Amino acid sequence: MNRRELTANISALIQQMIAEGEQPILDYVLRSTEEQQRLFKAGLSSCDGITKKSRHQSVRAADIYLWNFVTKKVDWQWDPAKAEYWHTVWVEKYGGDPMVVLKNGKVDYPHFQ
Asked: Which residues, 6+ apart, have CB-to-CB distance to 37 below 8 Å?
């Protein structure tokens, strides 16, 4: 998916999320090499930003978080069932890629590419 397609599809996904009662927050659409290296060194990405670039570095990925109405804060960690639902929508309706598994084995629920 190129940058323009990602922009259109992420926008449509966010509109659908809102229509279904979610409060999505878009984050990390563009990531610098330095930020990518920091995340790699922290074990939060399998891309080092130089030899293996993240799709965030070319604006072909975005992270989406959800506002929690109960706590009145951002949920930085997705509920797995909710993540499965939205990633299925992303793949089946918008042609996105499946959920990413990080090098530490953790699933990157907020990441959509």
From this structure: 48, 49, 50
Residues composing the chain: 113
CATH code at position 37? 3.30.1380.10
Instruction: Give the number of other CB atoms < 10 A from CB of residue 16.
Output: 16
In degrees, rounded to 5, the angle at the alpha carbon of residue 8 between the alpha carbons of residues 44 and 6 is 30
Q: The pTM is what?
A: 0.82
- Domain range for residue 83? 3-112
Structure tokens at 37: 């290296």
Q: What is the pLDDT of residues 48-102, one digit of tens each?
A: 999 999 888 888 889 999 988 888 888 888 899 999 999 999 999 999 999 988 7
